[in-house]
């Protein structure tokens, strides 16, 4: 679709605003506050959560274009998307390596320096829970910046339902399509439910106001299965998830190429849940899971016209895990949860680097490594009603970890084998005060940690012309977050405001000398700021103003003592908009005109040199959704209406004025 056609589409959407404004607006409905599990480990309304919590509900997902999971998360305050061929998420300035990504409560693990991408088709998602800030007591390792827990869909509430989704992206001339069959049928004394989904996405090179980014294409393919059986207060479920991803990384430098031929996830989960098993036992759950990630990475660098360094890496990661949870009500005024987690994570890495032009013949370096991490942890969280309006939470997690380098071969020669182990105790505490039904005030103290990955401890890797050697003496990174928050939910508006302060230490950084380097615990960081999510109806106009903004500062302290606020984190970021629900000729839907942007940033290294920057920007966007009846819904977005050039820090240049269009039909 050409820009002229996008302009026409934007005009058509804009022209509908007066007509829909004059149409009858549906009566206000009571919104039930969504429930979160990852904030404290106990089911609690997000309104009463002691932690900074955002829940993206099924209804909100339905009213957005499911381009990717990251696009569904863009309006969470303090959260940013990084694009290096594959989208990743950072929270409060903490890189994606320090954010825990979970699918149905089970963590995806990653052993690269880039962080865990989100490997799931957005059309399979029921809801998304986001916790901002340190949260390792409940969620374990990697939860320094926060946690993203993706809950997948289960069977429909009738014997058979068929749903299809098709979408088009004009900026990449791409598409996403999926089909789902699901249902629930009687079986014996209980019910059997099922869901089967297949889907595919293919996007070409991104077009921007300044030209096309070559190469920058991405594609994925998904197959997922859910089978469940419930009888009385017992239920079992099996989930299988297959997700294949491939991408080309735009670098802007024809002499520096990165390709990700595949990053394929296979995930299998068997789970049991029992409710009200005893007067004191509300819920008992057990999950067993296995997941594998098959990853290929190619880096082609030509530092001079006569020299080339080609690095090829193939990794196979296998994870076995088990989680056991017991939710108890030991007294009328308290609830408790205890849990045990086990994880066995193994990485096999096969690497090859070929250097030509540095001598009379090409130099080939081969490496093979087999390493593993095994971890046990036990955690407990206790909730106590101190009065009718005041609730306290306190929790702790003990973690024991061991890592081993089982095989290491370089150019056919066996290398020394090393190991690492650690144990630590973390805590969390919170208070929530309900002075009225409309208000909740909270204070929260929580800790986070991330254990060094296998690549940082044991592997030798080459990228960008630099060879990095693992360091088995690394310590875990740790953090402590303190928050004060206020939430208000009234008939005409809502507010969720947070003041936060985070101190992190023992950051693992690369220490490079010339063309070689290693990893060391050297850096520290302090972050503080305010995050606000708010909505307010504007009189009788039928319009609702909404805001999701963050203002923060982040200070880095390097090993040499140099301190800087130029950390690559924008001081201001967020979304401001006006939304209106409408009803016209038996149809219902909504319109949302919003601005999304952030302030400019710089990043300084330990020498005080600016090594990265980005200018501030703001884009004007329009979203419309319509329920066309008989199970058919339409969602359209016109992004970057003014067709401005911009490039957020850590991302590719933004798309030109473009249209995202999705049609979903359910039968």
UniProtKB/TrEMBL annotation:
GO molecular function annotations of the record: siderophore uptake transmembrane transporter activity
Membrane-related topology note: Multi-pass membrane protein
GO biological process, one term: siderophore transmembrane transport
One GO CC term on file: cell outer membrane
Signal peptide limits: 1-21
Residues in coiled coil: none
Domain of life, per lineage: Bacteria
InterPro entries, per the entry: Beta-barrel_TonB, Beta-barrel_TonB_sf, Plug_dom, Plug_dom_sf, TonB-dep_rcpt-like
Compartments, as annotated in UniProt: Cell outer membrane
Keyword annotations from UniProtKB, A to Z: Cell outer membrane, Membrane, Receptor, Signal, TonB box, Transmembrane, Transmembrane beta strand, Transport
Domain TonB-dependent receptor-like beta-barrel: 232-641
Pfam family, one: Plug
Segments forming domain TonB-dependent receptor plug: 47-147
Recorded family membership: Belongs to the TonB-dependent receptor family.
Name of the protein in its database record: TonB-dependent receptor
């Amino acid at each position: 679709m050409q820009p002229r056609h996008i302009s026409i589409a934007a005009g058509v959407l804009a022209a509908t605003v007066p007509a829909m404004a004059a149409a009858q607006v549906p009566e206000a409905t009571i919104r039930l506050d969504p429930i979160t599990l990852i904030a404290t480990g106990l089911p609690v309304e997000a309104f009463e959560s002691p932690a900074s919590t955002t829940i993206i509900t099924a209804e909100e997902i339905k009213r957005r274009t499911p381009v990717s999971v990251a696009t569904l998360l863009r309006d969470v305050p303090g959260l940013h998307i990084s694009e290096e061929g594959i989208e990743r998420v950072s929270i409060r300035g903490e890189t994606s390596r320090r954010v825990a990504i979970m699918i149905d409560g089970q963590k995806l693990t990653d052993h690269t320096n880039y962080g865990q991408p989100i490997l799931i088709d957005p059309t399979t998602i029921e809801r998304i829970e986001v916790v901002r800030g340190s949260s390792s007591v409940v969620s374990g390792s990697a939860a320094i910046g926060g946690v993203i827990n993706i809950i997948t869909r289960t069977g429909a509430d009738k014997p058979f339902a068929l749903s299809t989704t098709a979408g088009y992206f004009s900026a990449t001339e791409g598409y996403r399509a999926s089909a789902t069959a699901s249902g629930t049928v009687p079986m014996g004394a209980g019910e059997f439910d099922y869901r089967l989904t297949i889907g595919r996405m293919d996007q070409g090179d991104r077009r921007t106001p300044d030209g096309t980014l070559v190469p920058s294409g991405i594609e994925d393919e998904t197959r997922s299965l859910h089978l469940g059986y419930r009888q009385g207060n017992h239920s079992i479920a099996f989930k299988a998830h297959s997700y294949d991803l491939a991408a080309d990384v735009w670098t802007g430098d024809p002499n520096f190429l990165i390709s990700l031929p595949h990053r394929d996830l296979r995930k299998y989960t068997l789970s049991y849940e029992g409710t009200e098993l005893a007067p004191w036992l509300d819920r008992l759950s057990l999950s067993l899971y296995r997941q594998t990630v098959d990853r290929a990475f190619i880096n082609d660098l030509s530092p001079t016209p006569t020299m080339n360094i080609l690095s090829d890496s193939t990794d196979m990661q296998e994870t076995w895990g088990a989680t056991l949870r017991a939710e108890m009500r030991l007294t009328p005024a308290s609830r408790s949860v205890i849990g045990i987690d086990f994880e066995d994570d193994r990485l096999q890495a096969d690497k090859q680097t070929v250097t030509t032009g540095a001598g009379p013949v090409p130099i080939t370096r081969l490496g093979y490594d087999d390493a593993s991490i095994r971890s046990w942890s036990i955690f407990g969280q206790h909730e106590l009603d101190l009065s009718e309006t005041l609730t306290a939470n306190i929790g702790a997690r003990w973690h024991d970890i061991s890592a081993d380098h089982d095989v290491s071969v370089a150019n056919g020669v066996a290398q020394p084998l090393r190991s690492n182990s650690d144990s630590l105790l973390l805590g969390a505490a919170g208070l929530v005060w309900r002075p009225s039904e409309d208000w909740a005030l909270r204070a929260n103290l929580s800790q986070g940690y991330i254990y060094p990955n296998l690549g940082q401890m044991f592997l030798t890797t080459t990228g960008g012309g630099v060879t990095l050697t693992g360091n088995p003496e690394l310590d875990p990174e740790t953090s402590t977050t303190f928050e004060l928050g206020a939430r208000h939910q009234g008939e005409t508006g809502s507010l969720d405001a947070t003041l936060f302060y985070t101190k992190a230490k023992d950051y693992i950084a690369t220490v490079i000398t010339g063309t070689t380097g290693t990893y060391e615990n050297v850096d520290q960081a302090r972050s503080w700021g305010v995050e606000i999510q708010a909505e307010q109806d504007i009189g009788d106009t039928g319009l609702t103003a909404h805001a999701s903004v963050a203002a923060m500062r982040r200070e880095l302290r390097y090993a040499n003592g140099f301190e800087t606020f130029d950390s690559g984190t924008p001081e201001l970021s967020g979304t401001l908009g006006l939304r209106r629900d409408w009803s016209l000729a038996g149809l219902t839907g909504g319109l949302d005109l919003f601005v999304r942007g952030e302030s400019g940033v710089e990043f300084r290294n330990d020498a005080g040199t600016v090594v990265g920057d980005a200018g501030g920007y703001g884009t004007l966007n329009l979203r419309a959704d319509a329920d066309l009846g008989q199970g058919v819904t339409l969602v359209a977005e016109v992004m970057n209406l003014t067709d401005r050039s911009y490039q957020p820090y850590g991302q590719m240049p933004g798309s030109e004025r473009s249209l995202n269009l999705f049609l979903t039909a359910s039968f």
